[in-house]
Design brief:
Mean pLDDT: 95
Number of strands: 14
Strand order of the largest sheet: 5-2-1-6-7-8-10-11
Strand content: 5-15%
Largest sheet: 8 strands, mixed
CATH architecture of the largest domain: 3-Layer(aba) Sandwich
Helix content: 40-55%
Shape: globular
């Protein structure tokens, strides 16, 4: 079977949409991973089709991979920067499996090579360039003092961006809009701060910083979609290739759900083609903070809220939990009656309920086997960040304890102590009721804390956990009634199991 290319498409009489090959490069993208290609670049692809924006994306490979013969660049460029995005999952409660051929990428460069650096300079100083997009992982937006102005192409992403913007400034060109998609709070503001720090450290004149302030816009954004990335089963990959009519080693898989919140105003919205094409899930808002809270407390909070208990009940993957009335009912009750009420002052209730309903669809994805144990990694810090705020806000707002969140805390304690066998280099070794051995992985201090209390009584364990200010940032004994409620819940879990305990919250 032929590999994907324009020639292959021509030979098989492809009639779908393709961005004109002579469309100017209007976007410079730092990063080539599955997320950017299946999410951001796909948005641009649809925008081109629906609005005639007529813009393409030049991708910059973020690392120097000379030892690997520039494999990614060679591979993607060899197939004319065409690739396929598979959307697979549940949509409106039904299985969804759709393919989109993306043609919005023009080429991929590695500026660590001298010839590619010269090509980058041409793109950076072009009158056509409008936008910069990045996703260099959470660690990407960081200051590296080893990066110097004299580096032909520095190692850190903010330093790379500083150099790129300097090329444009020196050419007397207008500024750019930068859309940072890294998963850190205030990603745009943090990126701008580090770029300016490099400008200062490198002794660049004030005129450059003034140009950044007046001409450039660093946007904070929030993204939300699950990207498994690629098909790992060779038989399934072969079926997909047969369905498409070509081989595509750069095919990317993602779920149907998508959200991209971008901080800005109406002027920014008018600049972004995927806003003008009214693509679902992407929007401009003055502040993404409430949407970040929505994601953390509903999506992430749901995971952390029910998964340790579901594991103890004998479940192994998320999808199976959604097919069980008790586990699914526990999660939905927690979200609907305990979490959403604490967010309703900041966001529309109907919007929150729609987001929560989408969570069930996302967790029931028939194409993703999301392992519960992988979700349980570092559960103590996750519970503190994702579920504790909902519990505390609910108590303050309602004047009583939330049944499900309280039970979730008890289940967390059970997860770290059930059938405890001892602490080893790879984590805390435990055994659930069905005999399945498992290893809990968490911060070393948390693991040592639970290991020391593996034989503690229910009352002793609860008292010590609630009093652990390092774990929770406060003494949870101060929450009225919480101690006795968690003791009762943990007793029930230890007597009858977490499924029966979860069921008690639904009565």
């Amino acid at each position: 079977m032929e590999k994907l290319s324009y020639k292959t498409l021509q030979d098989r009489g492809y009639k779908g949409y393709l961005v004109p090959r002579d469309a100017p490069e209007k976007v410079l993208q730092f990063g080539e991973g599955n997320f950017l290609r299946s999410f951001v670049d796909r948005y641009f692809d649809y925008a081109n089709e629906k609005t005639g924006w007529n813009g393409r994306i030049c991708i910059l490979q973020p690392i120097d991979d000379a030892a690997h013969d520039y494999g990614f660049i060679k591979g993607l460029n060899a197939q004319d920067c065409l690739y396929t995005v598979l959307e697979r999952g549940k949509l409106d409660g039904k299985t969804y499996d759709d393919a989109r051929l993306v043609s919005s990428v023009s080429r991929c460069l590695n500026p660590f090579r001298a010839e590619d650096l010269e090509e980058l300079k041409k793109v950076a100083t072009s009158d056509d360039l409008e936008l910069v997009v990045s996703n260099t992982t959470e660690a990407g937006i960081a200051y590296d003092p080893t990066c110097k102005a004299e580096d032909a192409w520095p190692s850190s992403f903010p330093a790379k961006l500083a150099k790129t913007l300097r090329f444009r400034f020196d050419a007397g060109k207008g500024g750019l809009t930068i859309l940072s998609c890294e998963l850190i709070d205030h990603n745009g503001a943090e990126l701008e701060k580090i770029v300016k720090r490099y400008a200062s450290d490198w002794g660049w004149e004030k005129e450059f910083t003034d140009w950044l302030d007046k001409e450039c816009l660093f946007c904070t954004t929030l993204v939300d979609t699950i990207v498994p990335g690629r098909i790992r089963d060779p038989k399934e990959a072969a079926k997909v290739a047969e369905r498409l009519g070509y081989e595509d080693p750069f095919l990317a898989v993602r779920e149907p759900f998508q959200m991209w919140g971008i901080e800005g105003d109406d002027k920014l919205a008018a600049k972004l083609p995927f806003i003008q094409s009214k693509e679902p899930g992407v929007f401009v808002t003055p502040d993404v903070t409430p949407y970040k809270k929505r994601k953390v407390r509903i999506l992430n909070g749901a995971h952390t809220g029910f998964v340790p208990g579901a594991w103890l009940a004998g479940f192994n993957i998320v999808r199976d939990c959604m097919h069980d009335d008790t586990i699914r009912g526990f999660m939905n009750t927690m979200l609907e009656t305990e979490v959403i009420p604490t967010l309703s002052k900041e966001l529309d209730r109907a919007d929150l309920e729609a987001f929560a309903a989408a969570v069930e669809n996302r967790f029931d994805n028939p194409f993703i086997d999301h392992q519960l144990l992988s979700i349980c990694l570092n559960s103590t810090s996750k519970w503190r960040a994702r579920d504790l705020p909902s519990l505390l806000d609910y108590v303050e707002q309602e004047g009583k304890l939330p049944k499900c969140l309280t039970m979730s805390l008890a289940a967390l304690m059970a997860f770290y102590t059930t059938g405890a066998e001892g602490l080893a280099d790879d984590g805390l070794h435990l055994k659930r009721a069905d005999g399945t051995e498992y290893v809990a992985q968490d911060d070393a201090s948390a693991l040592a804390f639970f290991a020391e209390r593996k034989d503690a009584s229910t009352e002793k364990l609860v008292d010590d956990v609630l009093a652990n200010t390092d774990m929770w940032g406060q003494d949870l004994h101060e929450v009225k009634g919480l101690r006795d409620a968690v003791v009762a819940d943990l007793d029930l879990i230890r007597r009858e199991g977490t499924k029966a305990a979860f069921a008690s919250c639904l009565k």
